[in-house]
Amino acid sequence: DNKRRDMCMWLGFGEGPRSCIGLHFAQLMMRLLIAQLITRYHFSVDRTRLMVKPQNVIRLRVDPLNEEPEGREAEVVI
């Protein structure tokens, strides 16, 4: 039991019945942030740089969208 506790003690929100009460709120806020980024920007792979051996890195080009999304839009302040 001590080994399991030691493995989980460094997790950001903890684990089990005593985990952080803000876990679900933080996950919800990240989902909202990702949704806003996807609706406001266009993401594409940056092909101007040649990477022969990429190591855990993907270079992205981020361009703002000129079009406003249709329908209702809620402003999220973070």
How would you describe this structure to a colleague?
This is Cytochrome P450. Keywords: Heme, Iron, Metal-binding, Monooxygenase, Oxidoreductase. It comes from Bactrocera dorsalis (Oriental fruit fly). With 78 residues, this protein is an alpha+beta fold. It has one domain. 32% of the residues lie in helices and 13% in strands. The protein contains 2 helices and 2 strands; from the N terminus they run H-H-E-E. The chain has helices at residues 2-8, 23-40, and strands at 41-45, 60-64. It has a two-stranded antiparallel sheet with strand order 1-2. It is flat. The mean pLDDT is 74.
Brief digest:
This protein has 78 residues and is α+β, with helices and mostly antiparallel strands. It has one domain (2-64).
Features:
32% helix; alpha+beta; single chain; two-stranded antiparallel sheet; 2 helices
Helix count, per DSSP? 2
Q: What global shape is seen?
A: flat
Report strand %. Answer: 5-15%
Helix content: 25-40%
Largest sheet: 2 strands, antiparallel
Radius of gyration over all CA atoms, rounded: 19 Å
| Widest sheet: strand ordering | 1-2
* Mean pLDDT across residues: 74
What is the number of beta strands?
A: 2
Task: State the domain count.
Answer: 1
Helix-and-strand structural type: alpha+beta
Low-confidence segments, given as residue ranges, are none
Termini separation? 39 Å
Would you list the SSEs in sequence order as H and E? HHEE
